[in-house]
């Protein structure tokens, strides 16, 4: 039976578990071992660059088995088949959940996606420590997520600059105007892209108007990514017209038994919509 978590508790429980997890991993796999990975010093691919390529869809297709709010979404999906299918369908990049306790992911999922795909890969996790950034580099990630609701602005800047120093791009996730302005005021030099999460963490409701409301506040030099609640080609078209470069889509694809086919169908609809316009 899947277990879900009420909104007021979700972030606190995830962060507390992540602190314990990082301490355990550091004791088992020291940073010197991470730095010996075949990927650690290999060139990375620019997530921002791929999202701004006009011939691509701008879609960041996500591999996510479960979530705290929904429980299991697609417990038995295969990383290799799904991610290859995403890219063959026309996605611009991949997002891989690596949190195990709450999202059913693992580092091996990202390493597998890296093995079979030549595209930018975002490591989606709850980053609170530099060790996780070294870990991300060692498993083949090109970019990492930093979440404003989890980190103080000074922590975003410290972790973001560290990530960039080892060759990773940084996607800052915000939920509202206050998080956006407070964090960028301190950490704009440590961020490559800003993602607006359309999910309200108080009740898990989703509304793409969140992205539209913040669009004009996002600095032009930073990549703009809309996250959560994107279901149709029309959603993407509206957001693109508002200035967004990227569209992170997970559950819409993953709740299909063949997520890659759902991705292909949406991208085909997007192409048809663009052709009409």
Automatic annotation (TrEMBL):
Gene3D superfamilies: Aldolase class I. InterPro entries: Aldolase_TIM, Indole-3-glycerol_P_synth, Indole-3-glycerol_P_synth_dom, Indole-3-GlycerolPSynthase_CS, RibuloseP-bd_barrel. Pfam families: IGPS. It catalyses: 1-(2-carboxyphenylamino)-1-deoxy-D-ribulose 5-phosphate + H(+) = (1S,2R)-1-C-(indol-3-yl)glycerol 3-phosphate + CO2 + H2O. GO terms for biological process: L-tryptophan biosynthetic process. Pathway: Amino-acid biosynthesis; L-tryptophan biosynthesis; L-tryptophan from chorismate: step 4/5. Its EC number is 4.1.1.48. Keywords: Amino-acid biosynthesis, Aromatic amino acid biosynthesis, Decarboxylase, Lyase, Tryptophan biosynthesis. GO terms for molecular function: indole-3-glycerol-phosphate synthase activity; phosphoribosylanthranilate isomerase activity. Residues 11-265 form the Indole-3-glycerol phosphate synthase domain. It comes from the Bacteria. NCBIfam families: PRK00278.2-4. This is indole-3-glycerol-phosphate synthase. It comes from Solirubrum puertoriconensis.
